[in-house]
Amino acid sequence: MNNVEAYERPTILGLADSTHYLVGIMDEQENFTSLSDHGDVVAFRTLYKAKEYLRELEYQEANVHFDTAYDEMCGLSESQPSIQRITL
Fold first, then answer.
1. Of 11, 29, 48, 70, whose CB is crowded by the most CB atoms within 10 A?
2. 9 found inside a domain
C-alpha cells in the first residue's frame, strides 16, 4: 500500500452534472491535490476507471466525495457533500 500521511486520504471527487471524476489526495484542511509528484490531478470519465487507477497504485481504500450546488441554486442553504469510504 502506498505511504501517505495519516490525515491524507486518496479521494475520488465527483461533482453533480460533471462528466468526469477527479482523483487525488484530500488533506485534513480539505485541500484536494495530486497523488503524483508531477502535480496533476487525474480525471476519468467513469467511477470504475477512477477506482481501477487507485487499485493500480496499490491503494486499498479511498473516499468518494460527491458534491452538488443544487440546494444553493434553489435558494436553500448550502448542503454538505456526501462522503463515502470505499474498499478498492
1. 11
2. yes
**Number of domains making up the chain:** 1
DSSP 10-75: EEEEEETT-S-EEEEEE-TT--EE-SSTT-PPEEESSHHHHHHHHHHTT--EEEEEEE--HHHHTT
> pLDDT digits over 37-83, tens only?
767 889 999 999 999 999 999 999 999 988 776 655 666 566 666 78
Please state, in angstroms and rounded to a whole number, the distance separating the CA atoms of residues 26 and 41: 11
**Inside any domain, residue 88:** no
- Note the pLDDT tens digit of each residue in 69-80: 665 566 656 666
Q: What is the largest CA-CA distance in the chain?
A: 44
Question: What pTM value is reported for the model?
Answer: 0.76
Residue range of the domain that includes 21: 1-64
Grid coordinates of 43? 480525471
